[in-house]
Amino acid sequence: VVAMLTGIDNSEYTPLQQVSSSIAQTLTRDKKYEVLKAKLAGSSIDQIASSNGVEVVAFDNVKMNDYSVASLVMEPRVAGAIAHTAQTGAVSAPVKGYSNAVVFVVDEITKSETQTAEAEKVRLQASSENVASQMSVAALQSIAEIEDLRGQYF
User: Does the chain have fewer CB atoms within 10 Å around its N or its C terminus?
Assistant: First the structure.
């Protein structure tokens, strides 16, 4: 792991100018969800899709520890909502994701095998190693002082 300390802030709260963009994004996402929630009312998934100009996307084998579902990348709330569904055949209430609102219908529920602590430990270790290797390259690239001299040679 390559890390670099850029500053020490011992204050109790983060200054507003540092978090204002994050707050604005959260408020915008919440407002968009409220608008989409009203649009996602309907009796069937096909009716909801056609009235909103989107297509129904099939998914399968969603588990509680999944981070994404079908084409929805990094939507753990959606995966969790699907995994916690106890009723089949009913249109769900809208679920607020990071970038959208989702409704779904679960056709079949399959009882999964019990997850052991050791298996989860191995999965988390592999995931952490993958993220660490990706982030270390990004960190090195961001602090590197690279001068492009290709124009001198070509």
Answer: C
In this prediction, residue 41 has a pLDDT band, given cuts at 50, 70 and 90, of confident
User: 91 pairs with which residues across the strands?
Assistant: 105
Q: Break the chain down into helix, strand, coil percent, rounded to 5.
A: 45, 5, 50
Q: Nearest to residue 98, comparing CAs of 131, 66, 76? A: 76
pTM of the model as a whole = 0.57
Q: Where along the chain do its domains lie? A: 19-112, 113-143
Rg, Å, the chain Cα set? 22
Q: What is the DSSP letter of 65?
A: T
